[in-house]
Amino acid sequence: MKYTLTILAMTAFMSAVCTGQTYIDMELEPEKVQLGVGGSILFLPDDILDESPYTGAQMSLDLPMGRNFVLGIKGDVYQKNVEVEELRSPEKSYLQQRRLYSLGGQLSLDPGDTGKGVYVGAQMNYLWGDFQREDPETQSGMIQDDNHSFENQWMTGVHAGVTADISERIGVGVQTDFNFSFNELELPSALTKVQAGVKFRF
């Protein structure tokens, strides 16, 4: 009788432990894949490119990487028309179309592993530009314009953001990036990016 009670007690204890572990695993299941669309504002120092800030659009894809970590892939497009001086005739000016592209990834720590709330992490992006102007000879169409000091470059830094649910499959979020750009081993330049958008879960 004594041994029977001992066995029953051990069985009940193991069942409780297994049940509790299963419950925790279910609660900590990684968040679903998220596809995001939204807007983005890029702040650049003058030593990289003047006439900041630059506004644009962003698309993102968030992939769960086990508990508490999310891998994000992001792409941004910024565009702005700026009046600049002619190189050969400083008294004259024209409109230069500046288009900047950013593509990169980020790894975020989601402490609650819920896909919502506050998160932090690190990122790396490649920033490149395309500068065009109206053809001065034909006055129609756009041609490449080299009248700028911008150089394509890598950016790396940290970010923080917050997300909230609208429904089970739709959420909204805001994120701020603080980046450093290292160009030819010179002192780094600081860049800031603010993003806001909607995320769809699958």
The coarse overall form would be: elongated
Domains, number: 2
Number of strands: 9
Q: Largest sheet at a glance?
A: 8 strands, antiparallel, barrel
How would you portray this structure in words?
Helix content is 13%, strand content 56%. The chain has an eight-stranded antiparallel barrel with strand order 1-2-3-4-5-7-8-9. The N and C termini lie far apart (55 Å). By secondary structure, it is mainly beta. It has two domains: 1-30; 31-201, Porin (Beta Barrel). Residues 1-30 have low confidence and may be disordered.
What is the element layout, followed by pairings?
Layout: H1 2-27, E1 34-43, E2 54-64, E3 69-85, E4 93-109, E5 117-134, E6 142-144, E7 153-165, E8 170-181, E9 189-201
Task: Give me a quick take on this structure.
By secondary structure, the protein is mostly beta strands. The chain is built from one helix and nine strands; from the N terminus they run αβββββββββ.
Based on the model shown, name its key terms.
202 residues; Porin; 2 domains; 13% helix; disordered N terminus
